[in-house]
Amino acid sequence: MKNLIDKLQKQRALSKEEFVLLLGNITEEASEYLFDIARATAQKYFGNRIYVRGLIEFTNYCKNDCYYCGIRRSNHKVERYRLSREDILACCSQGYKLGFRTFVLQGGEDLKYTDDDICGIIADIKKNYPDCAVTLSIGEKSYESYLKYHEAGADRYLLRHETASPQHYARLHPKGLSALERQQCLYNLKQIGYQVGAGFMVGSPYQTVEDIAEDLLFLKRLEPHMVGIGPFIPHKETPFADFPAGSLELTLFLIGIIRLMLPNALIPATTALGTIHPKGREMGILAGANVVMPNLSPVNVRKKYELYDNKICTGEEAAECKMCLQNRINSIGYQIVVDRGDFCPVEINV
Ligand code: SAM
């Protein structure tokens, strides 16, 4: 396995068969070997700096019905909410004072917000905080809509591809949603000039090692600026309520692999990772991640944006979340930086 990891580091890619072999033979020794190299690679580009993104979950209405997601349309037990432009700006104001220089607007696919609404919100944030980056994560839209948001000032877009395999995709989503259309959205976003984030859930129902190998090959082809992966975690009010959560070991191993494939990518240690293990986010950083995304949403709506059961950080104020993460990051020898944390094509000298 060490040979394969060395080859991955050198060539920044493996064949599908090699990925399958590597993923099918994860041992503690192989993981430690991979994490050492992945950490050193991240350090080469980012030193011990960890970027923060303030996450604003501004709507939990969604027109989609993804089988895994707690805010899917058919979950009638969720109390739905929407934040107004003023609410969102208040989150940014608080975040700015706390040192955030990226705001991520995430939500379900909520048709109540028109393109003009979204563009207005982006323009207001950019007007008030010109030194900040705006990231959108609002799902699949037309090329024209993506273009409008970009022209209004949006810098980045997060859209996990969820799974690169069309067959697997069809087992996670109802008819009408397609893997290829989602992938096309990512290519459109890239073409328009966004910094783009793709990614997938680890251990989603019916996922095979071959599917994961396909995910890695897709990431290699797309070359996104950001890659968000986190374990699947069941939500009790979804069709996948009885499936087990994805594995911590496999998620960490994949973070390490992705760091070697895309050495300067922005890779978050996700909230889902912190949910399946109390030190999951620290472990994610030690496996090669370099971004954290504390929650800036108002506390009274946090519990309502429950994508999966037992999601952490739903009861704390933004300042507490930031402090908690800062302490966690300092405890492993890293530092949070006040910086937009843009994709950087070159190594830094540290
Ligand atoms: N609507 C936007 C979209 O489609 O990209 C953004 C919101 S969506 C809820 C954000 C991400 O949450 C999804 O891309 C999915 O990977 C993740 N997610 C949803 N349900 C999950 C679950 N049960 N466990 C882990 N992650 C989940």
TrEMBL record:
Keyword Metal-binding: yes
Superkingdom in the source lineage: Bacteria
Family matches, as SMART domains: BATS (SM00876), Elp3 (SM00729)
Residues binding S-adenosyl-L-methionine: E162, R182
Signal sequence, renumbered to the chain: none
Chain residues that bind (3R)-3-methyl-D-ornithine: S137
Cofactor binding, per record: Binds 1 [4Fe-4S] cluster. The cluster is coordinated with 3 cysteines and an exchangeable S-adenosyl-L-methionine.
Radical SAM core domain: residues covered: 48-270
This protein's UniProt keywords: 4Fe-4S, Iron, Iron-sulfur, Metal-binding, S-adenosyl-L-methionine
A Pfam family hit: Radical_SAM
InterPro entries: Aldolase_TIM, BATS_dom, Elp3/MiaA/NifB-like_rSAM, FeFe-hyd_HydE_rSAM, HydE/PylB-like, rSAM, rSAM_sf
Record bears the keyword S-adenosyl-L-methionine: yes
Molecular function per GO: 4 iron, 4 sulfur cluster binding; metal ion binding; transferase activity
Residues where [4Fe-4S] cluster binds: C62, C66, C69
GO BP annotation list: sulfur compound biosynthetic process; water-soluble vitamin biosynthetic process
Gene3D superfamilies: Aldolase class I
Entry cofactors: [4Fe-4S] cluster; [2Fe-2S] cluster
Annotated protein name in UniProt: [FeFe] hydrogenase H-cluster radical SAM maturase HydE
Species annotation: Clostridium thermosuccinogenes
